[in-house]
Amino acid sequence: MIGKEVIGDATLYMGDCLEILPTLPKVDAVITDPPYGLGEKLQGGTWGATPELLIWDQAPPTVDHLLRLASLSSVTVFLGGNYYGLPPTRCWLVWDKQNAVPTMADCELAWTSLDANTKRLSRPVGRVEHGHPSEKPLDLMAWTLRTVKASGTVLDPYMGSGTTGVACVQMGLSFIGIEREPKYFDIACRRIEQAYKQRPLFEAEPPKPPQQLGLEAA
Questions:
Q1: Measured between alpha carbons, how far is 194 from 139 in angstroms, rounded to an integer?
Q2: What is the dihedral of CA 57, 120, 78, 44, to 10 degrees?
């Protein structure tokens, strides 16, 4: 059964993205972090490598499915994109994990559909804070949105605990999220609702140029 929650400019679906995606229109960006299929390879050094993660990360999406997702937008980002055999890209997004332990990858690569230069963010790996075993840092997702110049409506068909949605709320973007696990869906709903409560009611206006203030530019 498909569930649906609308919170501000965020529309959240609980269900299988394979069933829900055909009902959605095209969006302005697809930014998501699917399972990588590394469950049996994880050695336990990753801070989130709990038995729950070993189970969750067993069934990665197929390349055909990811390419269908990419067809929904001209701006697409797949975290862990190096694991899927996707077409070549010039614009990889590289997360340099400053405090990675020896059994953890030093970097994470995100595949993009963009014809642009590869970009890198160096930041520490955070710990799981909201209950999802593969949770990504909020500032990583915000950096991703800024780097690909996301605008309009962003789709995350593997929403997890809603980190991409929270970043969209903070940046004034509309969001569509899909998550099939009820536990993670409920966490995402709470986080996105809280993000709206914390967002200022009125955005600060940009400073007016001197001419509009009746002053001459220096």
A1: 17
A2: 0
Could you read off the pLDDT of 40-90 as tens digits, one per residue? 555 555 544 555 555 555 677 889 999 999 999 999 999 999 989 999 999
Predicted confidence (pLDDT) per residue in 157-193, tens digit:
999 999 999 999 999 999 999 999 999 999 999 999 9
DSSP assignment, residue 217? -
Place of tokens 């929904």: 72
For 107, list phi and psi in degrees, rounded to 5.
-140, 160
Residues 6+ apart with CB under 8 A from 171: 142, 145, 146, 150
**Cα(89)–Cα(112) distance, integer angstroms:** 7
How far is Cα 162 from Cα 166, in angstroms, rounded to an integer? 6
**Dist CA 130 CA 140 (whole Å):** 15
What one-character DSSP code corresponds to residue 18? H
User: Between the CA atoms of 35, 14, 192 and 205, what dihedral angle is there, to the nearest 10 degrees?
Assistant: 100
In terms of residues, how long is the chain? 218
Q: What are the chain's domains?
A: 3-213 (3.40.50.150)
What are the beta bridge partners of residue 29? Answer: 154
3-class state of residue 7 by DSSP: strand
DSSP of 92-160: -EEEEETT--TTS-SEEEEEES--S--EEEEE------SS-TTPPPHHHHHHHHHHTT--SEEEESS-T
Tell me which residue of 20, 56, 87, 49 sits closest to 181, measured CA to CA: 56
